[in-house]
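Hi R.,

Here's the chain you asked about this morning:
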Amino acid sequence: MSELFSRFLACDGECGTKIELTSRDKKDVVDGMLDSCAEVLGWTTRDYGKQTEVYCPFCQKRARRIVDGR
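And here is the predicted structure, written out as tokens:
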């Protein structure tokens, strides 16, 4: 049986959601592909110098409700 390679991107909000890509070929599982999947699914990123935070659509909506007072 061949080895599987996985990479994941976890939401920095409180929900604990993550996107995980798994492939038998290591070159298929790269950060660029993971970022593209996150973008298609509606995730957003915030860059703070060397650190990047990512948020799923649920946490984005929750943050808007908190800020808007709804």
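One quick note: The mean pLDDT is 83.

Cheers,
M.
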